[in-house]
Amino acid sequence: MSADHAHSFAAADALEETAAPAGGGAPAARARSDEVLLSVENVSLGFGGVKALTDVSFDIRKGEIRAIIGPNGAGKTSMLNCINGFYHPTEGRITFKGQTRPKMRPHEAAAGGIARTFQNVALFKGMSTLDNIMTGRSLKMRTNVFWQLVRFGPATREEVEHRRKVEDIIDFLQIQHIRKTPVGKLPYGLQKRVELGRALAMEPELLLLDEPMAGMNLEEKEDMSRFILDVNQEFGTTIALIEHDMGVVMDLSDRVVVLEYGRKIADGTPDEVKANQAVIDAYLGVPH
Amino acid sequence: MIYREAGQYKTSYEADRAVFPLRQDRIGIALIIVAAYAAGVFGSDFLLQAVLIPFLIFSLAAIGLNILVGYAGLLSLGTGAFMGVGAYACYKLMTAFPEVNVVVWILMSGFFSAAVGVFFGLPSLRIKGFYLAVATLAAQFFLQWSFNRIPWLYNYNISGAIEAPLSTLFGVPITGATATSEARYFVVLTLVIGLTWLASNLVHGRIGRQWMAIRDMDIAAELIGIRPLTAKLMAFACSSYFVGVAGAMMVFLWYGGAEYNVFNIDQSFFILFMIIIGGLGSLIGSFMGAALIFMLPIGLGIVLPAITEPFGLTVGAATIEHLRFMIVGALIIFFLIVEPHGLARLWQIGKQKLRVWPFPY
């Protein structure tokens, strides 16, 4: 919970302005560096006899969009679960922002600046869009129980201040019209968008997206791709995403890591990965 | 036509987060509160003692349980016992320090039941749903046993019962044999209004959102940074506080005395039914559920003879009692089928319809 990672929206705007004249193309405007934000070293994960991950190593650099792809059951979601502390790797280590933590609980990962969306939408169904996104700011809220009880003074000020931030996100994702709608009633595409909003409300440094386009039509995919690129460029958020739509993966990501049966088989830029024989074999199969 | 939001613009987030954003709602609440106080002045002794005081006390207990079950999604069957903890704590405090005002002790006794609630809530970190209900059932039986078998709790009375000693507020007796039902009603009403206000603040703020997040999707809540441990134990603490205060009020401001078996499992189920019928996750539903479950039998007891007598049927008191059970049971099933989300949802739908009336939408 260091103060330095709380990059505000204002700072993100400034960053965009300086970056914008560099060129209209998506990768050129991106504020990338070679600084490693998260590194995964020799991670293995086993459930009893089943090996979900075997000796996987890769890194995610600050400011990049990193895709994790692979056939079904390759261990992609297990990898994300390891990164945000939901699973603990049986071997290997994960270093985030230069700190290696042997066993990190999910809420500690969240406090450290890792946010996450889910493959099957995991929204708080009984709450409105607004409340869902407001809940995403729980970690940033500080007023104690006394002020919460009287709902006055500091509690009101805090609530309003966070509401402003949340309204920025609502504007950004263009979901103003469903602000007060219970999310259980929303169509799937919008639920995915609200879930992204909830993750953004945490102002994460690293955003993990588990199949953000799953089950969407072409138009919704285009919208979502635009949002992902905008998040990356405007807020400077580093993104790791799992996706099965190869067109999306190749267009969005800076670097791609390919998993198959829990092992890493390729790692590199989209073009390198596309040309990699092992990847082609994994996806298309090899004659025996 | 009266219930319209037209022309009521919200120009600030402060206005938008109000619990009652509509002016009509605010006026309605104010009228209800005024009427409630007026009832204390003009109401008959029967109305106050047999209807309104218990209704308010059960509403408060229902609010407490609703925080746990409706907002945080943790099932509990120990409500009766937690009420008992509040009552016995209040009794011990009152008899040990008689010079302190009883209202202070009633409010303090909630902290004891909160502590006991947190202790018995610890299993909730590992188990959910019916399994948690069984764990809280253990609390119910253990605590009820304690109320009976630990004589220290009832000051070694030979009767084994706790009795409200005489005490006053502003010179007016509010507990004990000489307290009038008016005086007790005003104390109960004021306490319930105040505590409901606090509960409403809690559930509409950060803490309430965290509870609902845990209820709706605990994994996602944890990944957002909500600590399940704190959120769940907080829910147990707050819930048990309200339930405990309701228990203390029940003994000291309504019954005047009680034995251990007042706080049995029936009491737990009674309050659980109230929130299921009233609406899980709704404060107004807690009041509606308490009204339906508690006041309907009383109403039927008055109405049924009035219906049957013109036909020359003299129905015995026992038959009326049975009829009451049957009708209440049938109504509960009816409500569960027609509106499983409780009376609070019906109320919401009604308000929505009223808002656009006379048009369908």
Which features would summarize this protein structure in a list?
heterodimer; A: 288 residues; alpha/beta; Rossmann fold; 2 domains; 6-stranded mixed sheet; 4-stranded antiparallel sheet; 12 helices; 22% strand; globular; B: 361 residues; mainly alpha; ABC transporter involved in vitamin B12 uptake, BtuC; two-stranded antiparallel sheet; two-stranded antiparallel ribbon
Q: What Rg of chain B, in angstroms, do the CA atoms define?
A: 21 Å
Proportion of helical residues of chain A: 25-40%
The CATH homologous superfamily of the largest domain in chain A = P-loop containing nucleotide triphosphate hydrolases
CATH architecture of chain B, by name, is Orthogonal Bundle
Task: Please give the alpha-carbon distance between the first and last residues of chain A.
Answer: 53 Å
The largest pleated sheet of chain B is described as: 2 strands, antiparallel
Instruction: Give the CATH topology of chain B.
Output: ABC transporter involved in vitamin B12 uptake, BtuC
Ranges of chain A with pLDDT <50 over ≥5 residues?
Answer: 1-29
Order of helices and strands of chain B: HHHHHHEEEHHHHEHHHH
Oligomerization state: heterodimer
**Share of residues in strands of chain B:** under 5%
Mass-distribution shape of chain B: globular
CATH class of chain B: Mainly Alpha
The SS-based structural class of chain A is alpha/beta
CATH topology of the largest domain in chain A: Rossmann fold
User: How many extended strands of chain B?
Assistant: 4
Shape of chain A: globular
Rg from alpha-carbon coordinates of chain A: 19 Å
- Provide the CATH architecture of the largest domain in chain A: 3-Layer(aba) Sandwich
* Strand order in the sheet with the most strands of chain B: 1-4
